[in-house]
Amino acid sequence: MAFDKAYIPYGGYWSSPFCRWQGGLSEQNSVELVARTAKRFLGEREIGADNFDGIVVGVTVPQHRSFYGGPWAAVLAGLPGVTGPMVGQACATGARALYEASSELETGMRSGVLALTCDRTSNGPHVYYPSPKGVGGRGKTEEWVWDNFNADPNTKLAMLATAENVAKKYGITREEQDETMLIRNEQYQAALADDRAFQKKYMYALEIPKGRKKTITIDADEGIFPTTKEGLAGLRTVMPEGTVTFGTQTYPADGNAGMIVTTKERAEALSKDGGPVTQVISFGDARVEKAHMPMAVVPAAKAALERAGISASDCAAIKTHNPFAVNDLVMSKELGIPIEGFNHYGSPIVYGHPQGPTGMRVMVEMIEEIAAKGGGYGLFSGCAAGDTAMAVVVKVG
Question: By residue range, what is the domain housing residue 343?
Fold first, then answer.
């Protein structure tokens, strides 16, 4: 089904900088931080609490007291009369949060939803599951982040293995992946041109308290790796007989992003500088064969495009969540798009992978790219754990 009631105001969104694992956000409660950031953002934009009757919080790594989810975040964000769910679907969480917010608009349940996404992969929880009947009365333990990165309970394989399986299936070489990574880094550099003019359209600085009187500001991505052809060629593959190196995959990170989803009339009223509103058009999701996660972006994208009644060639911009260069090579081959034809201005393989907000940042960048072109359709597709993916089609202007 195509949506027709959910809109996003121009400038009614942000992404924080993304910070490398164990970097500047490694000790911040991600739910508290995104809510504080939302309160500052709404205050500076003079967007009142009366514009919202719902909230959605997308998060995948539990934080202290995050059991209280949306209602807690709403209070911290200055929306004490608002409630809503907490959702998570690994790296498809940004798309899933937008789907939840848009669906509530579509059904008439809400007239304005604040969709927040956040995660801190640094210092993830060490979980203990009690089991009095276990050997010696001992329970099971889990490193929430690393154990799940390294083993899908369905396949017992790490996410890296899914990339190698897909590379083998499609005959994707290490050299193709290196070349893709060079292109993606060049695209990110375009976002830094003219004193980061493109990023400053949407990137919102974080204020981090350091003691009672000191606050530090993080206003740019932290953890970008210098990348050269020679540097990539000199790396060993992660798996002995594999094709993926540490240079052709993303890295864990921390950050947040937010988006206002509302009616057309309110979106027009809230748009910054009279900019074009974005209509949410359609969604698609998919699950592919076991241990082939990077392939899932293709059927998810095709489903969203079909529901929108358009093709990839109709899109003014296409963006992906690409934990591996393999993802984009499959997308290119299956949809007939040249590698350099999508992910302009950057993508998660360059600036990191905080899971919850990853897809939302990508969609925010896509909206800004299309607005600069004068409007049109945009397609986002990103994979997620469990050999799944989720895709979104929007129309700007």
Answer: 159-196+277-396
